[in-house]
Amino acid sequence: MFKFLHAADIHLDSPLRGLDRYEGAPADQIRGATRRAFENLVEVALREEVALVVLAGDLYDGDWRDFNTGLFFVKQMARLKEAGIPVYAVNGNHDATSRITRRLPLPENVHVFPTGEATTIRLEGVDVAIHGQSFAEQCTTEDLAKNYPAAVSGVFNLGVLHTSMTGRDGHGSYAPCSEACLRDRGYDYWALGHIHQREVLSGATTIAYPGNIQGRHIRETGPKGCLVVHVDDNLAVDPVFEPLDVLRWEVARVGLEGAGSSSDAIDRVGDAISQVVEQTESRFVAVRVVLEGATSLSEAIAAAGRQWVADIRALALDIGAERVWLEKVVNQTTPPVDARPSAEEDTPRAEVASLVGELLASATAGADIGVDLSDLQQKLPSELSDALRTADSDWWRDVLGEARSRLLAELKG
């Protein structure tokens, strides 16, 4: 019957925080990635000859630094206008009406839903009713979905909403709603935004997050893109993922169990990086190498960490100087069981191993340590404050694991 493109969380010209902390960071490539990914989005819409494009919030990352961001968007929308493709968008928490002070006239094919209440637009030439509402304020915490219009009988009903829904960690709680509430509206498809991880919930109503179109840091790994949704004559839908990202973030986990020498370990790292590069096809890849497992090299890695990082960085350049950037090396290795300090030992090493072991096993390690970093976070510049993810248990595990390895190596001399 027809196809439409569903995308969200474009974050055009998103600022790059803290890249200057990284050696050799490809700042220019990362800086232009969101624009190139959005150009890819327009190319997919033209190639697939979609009937419409839906943008479910956070087109912008915040207020524009200058008018170039808006002019770029207008240019891309004009390309869709020439092809007769309309665009329907809602504003989210990052580009809420109150946050964007600069504005430009938009091509007539672009329709942004108002903020006061959810409204319905009927698409001429295709039996589609599109329902949506934009954020007036960034901190929109009320359930908008419950007041969306009733489904229009006899047509394809498409809801557009920027929401955290429920049960999805790692994102702010904006316009929260339940899955049951969305299904109760009787729509055929909910085009959601805000959650940067792709997710499709099937059923009588398909509820979908396409994820963001371009990963911006190491916590946004894997393929990023949009959904091209195929709708048949019975109004059944088939969302097909289309990758749009031009730079991909990946984590290469390297098990060093049984590695008997540094050269053996480096070979394993090289194999892992090569596999990541192969999977990303022709894209530039920013890779974090995580060394893990029980190995006799654990304390040597901790004691000579800078040398290991330099060796792995040189290896990454050799594998793909124009395509690979080593974002970070994380050492999560541990000594073999027979080489670890015994619990019966009355030594500093044994005490450190025991204390850190207890903290690593705790789900509340940050609170258990008893150090409040909130005051420090408020005083630090944003690019440094963002690196202190004190509410993230994985962050604590990384920090504690590295601290343990360094302490044990130092105490051993």
Quick tags:
alpha/beta; 15 strands
Could you estimate the helical fraction of the residues in percent?
Answer: 25-40%
How large is the count of helical segments?
12
Structural class: alpha/beta
Major β-sheet strand ordering: 4-3-2-1-11-12
CA distance, first residue to last residue? 72 Å
What would you report as the Rg, rounded to the nearest angstrom? 25 Å
Q: Percent of residues in beta strands?
A: 15-25%
* Main sheet properties: 6 strands, mixed
What are the segments in which pLDDT stays under 50 over at least 5 consecutive residues? none
Question: What is the N-to-C order of secondary-structure elements (H for helix, E for strand)?
Answer: EHHEHEEEEEHEEEEEEHEHHEHHHHH
What's the overall average pLDDT, rounded? 89
Number of strands: 15
C-alpha geometry: elongated
Task: Characterize the structure shown.
By secondary structure, the chain is α/β, with parallel strands linked by helices. Helices cover 31% and strands 22% of the residues. The strands form three sheets. The chain has a six-stranded mixed sheet with strand order 4-3-2-1-11-12. The protein has a six-stranded mixed sheet with strand order 5-6-7-8-10-9. A three-stranded parallel sheet has the order 13-14-15. Helix 2 (33-48) packs parallel to helix 3, helix 5 (262-279) crosses helix 7 (305-320) and helix 8 (348-360) runs antiparallel to helix 12. The protein is elongated. It starts with a strand and ends with a helix.
Can I get a quick summary?
The protein is an alpha/beta fold.
What is the topology?
Layout: E1 2-7, H1 27-31, H2 33-48, E2 52-56, H3 68-82, E3 87-90, E4 110-112, E5 119-123, E6 128-132, E7 156-162, H4 179-184, E8 189-193, E9 199-201, E10 206-209, E11 225-231, E12 237-243, E13 247-255, H5 262-279, E14 284-294, H6 298-303, H7 305-320, E15 324-334, H8 348-360, H9 365-369, H10 374-379, H11 382-385, H12 393-412
Helix pairs in contact: 2-3, 5-7, 8-12
